[in-house]
Amino acid sequence: MTAQDLPAELRKALLAVARTPRLLVACDYDGTMAPIVLRPEDARPLPEAARALRSLAELPATTGALISGRALRDLATLSRMPAEVYLVGSHGSEFDIGFVNAIDDESRALLGRVVAEFERIIHEEQPQARIERKPASAAFHVRGMEPEAAEAALESVRQGAAAWEGVSVTEGKAVIELSVIHTDKGEALDILRHQVGATAAVFLGDDVTDERAFVRLHGPDVGVKVGDAATAAKYRVKDPADVATALAFLSEERKIWLRGDHASPIERLTMLASPRTVGLIAPDATVTWLCHPEPDSGAVFAHLLGGAEAGHFSVGPARPSLPLSQRYVDGTMTVQTRWASLQVTDYLEHGSPQGRTDLTRVVEGSAKAVVRFAPRPDFGNARISLQVEEDGLRVHGTNDPIVLRSPGVVWTVDEDGPQPTAHAEVDPSAGPVVLELRCGSDDLGPHPVPEPQRRDEAERYWRDWAASLKLPPVKPDLMKRSALTLRGLVHADSGAILAAATTSLPEEMGGVRNWDYRYCWLRDAAMTASALVSLGSFAEAEGYLAWLHRVLESVVCPERLHPLYTIQGGPIPAEAVIDTLPGYAGSRPVRIGNAADHQVQLDVFGPVVELIAALASARTAADPGQESLTDAEWELVVAMVSAVEKRWREPDNGIWEIRGNPRHHVYSKVMCWVTVDRAIALAEQHGRKAAREWLLLRNLIREEVLREGWNETAKSYTAAYDGTDLDAATLHIGLSGLLDPKDERFKATVVATETELRSGATVYRYHHDDGLPGGEGGFHLCAAWLVEAYLLVGRRGSAEALFDQLVRSAGPTGLLSEEYDPVAERALGNHPQAYSHIGLLRCAQLLSEH
Question: What's the predicted TM-score (pTM) here?
Fold first, then answer.
C-alpha cells in the first residue's frame, strides 16, 4: 500500500499535523503496530511500522510512544523499540522512564486478592482462560475460547472482583483487566503530552481501551481507528499494514518540513523591488518571499522559511525541467527566468497606489506551463479560502484584500492540504499570459494601463536612476547591480532603508542565529545612504535624514534613540518565534521582531554624522555656489554630538549586537570620536558654530581609545578594553583616521586581524564566545574592511586578491548575503544584505582611486 491509498482526509490531516512545532505520535501495540495473533507472546510489530515509528522518534521536536495494555516488560521484549521511543504499559500504570510505578502495601494486597479470584475462576469454571500479571493490575484473557464460554468467564469477573472497591476495570477485545490504581490510555497520553511539551498529538489504536485516548484528543490532534468498530476517532484505516503506511507518510512529511528540503541556495535567490517593497524569486521562478503591506509586515509567501505549505506562487513548464538561466533585465529590478521553450518575467509595479503591493508575472513561449498559487498571509497564520471568478482568483480570510487577475486562465482549487492551493495549465503559444497579483485591492477588473506600458514605467524608474550614477570602473556591471540592490532596499514612501530583505536566514545551517533584518537600523541605513551619495545619488540620503528627524521627534532626547525602528519609524515589535515554520533548511527558530531594539549601541551616531558630511561635500562638489548643509541637517549633527557627550563613557552591546553583558567596545568608542570629529569639520567648512567643549571631547575620546584599546599581549587593538579577543570592526581605528594608518600599532592590528579572523575569501567578525550556541560564517563587510586596511598599509596585492574572492562569492545574479561559509562555499544570513553591497562598492571605489 502507498500513501496515496490512504483516505484523502487522513492524508490532509497528517500533512497538517506534520507541521506542528512539537509532535507526539503514540500507538497502541496489539492490533495496531502488531497484528492480532492467537498466542499473545507471538505478537511482533510489522517491520514497516516499527521502522516508521523509530524514524519519527529520531526526528527533532518529535516524540514516538507505544501505549499498551501489556505489562511494560512484555511490551519492551516484544516491540524491541529503541530508547528514543517511550513505552507505556498496563494502560498507563507503567512508564519506562521518569515516572514512579510503585504501589503501596494496601494496593498490593488488593492485587493479590484479584489474582486469587482469577485463579479460582480458571480452576472452578473456565480452565482455558489465562491470567497476565502486571505490577499494578492483572488481565484475564479469553482469546481462543468458544464465544459462549469466553462470555461466561468474563461475566464471572464482572460480577466478582470487578465490582470490588478500589478496583478499576478496563475491557478490551477478549480481555478484562483489573487495576488497583486508576489509570487509562487517555490519561497516559496526556501525561506524555505534558512531559514532552507537544503542540499536537497523533494516536492510533484498535481496541475499546483506546477510546479513552481518542476522547482526549482536541484541536490539531489526529485520532486514527484501526478497524470498523464504533469510535470517537475522526479517521480510520483497515489494519496494521495501513498503520505502517500512515506512520511512514507522516515521518516523511515531517522530515521534509523540519529539514527544509525546499530550500534553494541563498546565493541563488534574486530580489524583486519597487519603491516601497521587496520580494525574492527562487531559481525556478517560485515567488519564495513577499510581505504585505510593508516589507516588515507578515509574509504572504514564506516558502523561503517553510516550503510549499508556507505560501508560494510558482510558474514552470508542464514537463518539469531545470531552468536554463535567471537574470535581471540590465539596469532594472525585472527578473527573467528562462527554460528551453518558456520564459517568465517578473516585476513589482512602480505606480501602485499607497498600501498596494502589485506583482506582475508574464509567461511567454511555445511550451505549456503550470501555475500554482498558494497565498498564506501572515506567515500562514491566516486561514484562507480561494474563490474562482471569471477573471481570476479572490482570496478570502485576510485583513487586507488580495486578488489574482488572470483572464482566460482556468483554475482548479485543491483542498487536499491544510490550506487551499489553486493550479492551472496555461498555453502562452498564442500570446503572453499575464498574471497580476494585487495585494491591498479587491479589484479584479482590467488595469487602466496596458501591461507593456507598466513594465516600461517600472524598468525606466530603475534604468534612468542607474544611468545617472558615477560607478567605479572596476567590475562595472557588478557595481551597478550593487547600487540597484541598495536602492531596492530603500522604502521611498517613508525614507527608511532596510538592512536586508528577509528574516531568519541562518548564520549557520541548522543553527539558532536567525534574526529579523527587515527594519531600519540608524547605522546600516546611514551607511547605505552614504554609499549612494558616493555614487552621485542624494535623494536617498535626504529621505533617510527626514525620516530620522521624525523619529527624533518621538524620543525625549537624542541619546535615548533606539538602534533600529520599523519602516514607519515606530518601535520594533517584541521579538517572537513563529513555531509553525521550520526555517530555512530546517534552521529554527524563525523570528520576527528584534530584541536588539532595546540594546545600547553607541556607535550609531557616527555614521549619521558621516552621512551628513558626505552629503554636504557632494553637494558642494556638484554646485559650489549653493549652501550645502541645511539647518535641519546641522540640528541632527548637534543632536548626535549631544548624545555622545552624555553616553560615550558607558559600555554597550556594540555593532554586532552581542546579547551578553555590555563592554567598552573599541569600535563604539571610535564611532563616538568620529561623531565629534566630523561635526567639528562640518562646522569649520560651513560656518557653523561648534562648542569649544567638542574639541576637548574629541581629544579625550581619542586618548582613551589609544590607551585602553591596545593590548600588548595580543599586539593589537582588541574588541573591547577588557580582553585580548579581536574584532574586525576594530580596524576602524585606522580606517576612520583616529590613528594614522602608518602607525605601527595599526599595521600590527591589520596583521593580527588577518591572522586570526581571515579564512580564505572571508573575514569573521570575531571568534570569542558571545553567549549563543553554534557558530557563524564570515562577514562580507569585514572582508571589505580588510581590503581597505590592506590599501592603507600599502598591501595593494593583498587587497586585490581578497577583493577578487569577494566578487566571486556573489550569486549568479550579482547579489550578496550577509555572510559566507568558506568551507562549504555558500552564502549564509539574510539576503541581500545592505552591508555586503556597501563593502563591495567601497572596495571597488578605493581600488579605482589607488
Answer: 0.83
